[in-house]
Design goal:
This protein is mainly alpha-helical and 239 residues long. It has 9 helices and no strands.
């Protein structure tokens, strides 16, 4: 799934560079920002936060990674650099093809860019890529999400059934079933847009609380044994 998703992004970038026109890119200077600029920025932050979400889930697999003290930081740094590079390239490609005004007006930027490059068939390929991306995201969430209730149940802080291990596949089957049931209830409870906004808000709220907890623990209990120590913990937490 990951290879297909990365391959789709790279393909769009290559097509944009080879077939696109440079006329779409030019500097834009805003001398008098509108009064609703702050609100627009805050609204734009939500999908941006969703796009960059996921970096923290690597730690949830720590119990199943060999030499986690070495491999988790390496994977987190290299993975983040790769994602940032791909996002910068793909967004540069969109502006390269469509220009600022068309990107601002478009509801389906990737599809519009591909239609402009290779015709209506481009939009169909983008749809296929989005389906693959959705399945990839679903796979990642089912891989990482159940590890939290599983670990909590194993330590006696959650329902005991969540610590069950499948006898054949050796997966946390109880926690997987629990997460699936919660997901079904959430789908029935509201629209996709509502779930999207609530989930992103909740995730980043807990990330903010984690940063606060990091500062507090390092300040109040500096000598507490720690398998992992955050370098420059205060500066990183504030960022």
């Amino acid at each position: 799934m990951t290879s297909l998703k990365v391959g789709a992004v790279v393909a769009i970038v290559i097509l944009g560079i080879t077939l696109g026109k440079l006329s779409g890119i030019h500097p834009v200077l805003i001398t008098s920002p509108a009064q609703d600029s702050i609100g627009a920025i805050l609204m734009a932050i939500v999908p941006a936060m969703a796009a960059y979400n996921g970096f923290q889930t690597l730690g949830q697999l720590g119990g199943e990674i060999s030499n986690p003290g070495r491999n988790i930081p390496r994977a987190a740094i290299l993975g983040s650099l790769l994602v940032i590079s791909l996002y910068v390239l793909i967004n540069w490609t969109y502006f390269h093809i469509l220009g600022f005004s068309r990107v601002a007006q478009s509801q389906y930027v990737a599809s519009d860019a591909m239609v402009l490059l290779i015709g209506n068939s481009g939009a169909k390929w983008i749809t296929v890529a989005m389906i693959v991306s959705a399945f990839g995201s679903l796979h990642a969430n089912f891989l990482t999400g159940p590890r939290i209730p599983f670990a909590m149940a194993r330590d006696g802080h959650f329902f005991a059934f969540a610590k069950r291990i499948h006898s054949v596949f050796h997966t946390p089957s109880g926690a997987v079933i629990f997460q699936g049931c919660v997901a079904i209830l959430l789908v029935l409870a509201g629209t996709y847009q509502e779930l999207y906004s609530f989930v992103i808000f909740a995730i980043w709220l807990f990330l903010a609380l984690t940063a606060v907890a990091l500062i507090r623990l390092r300040t109040k209990e500096p000598d507490l044994p720690r398998p992992f120590r955050v370098w420059g913990y205060f500066q990183i937490a504030m960022m």
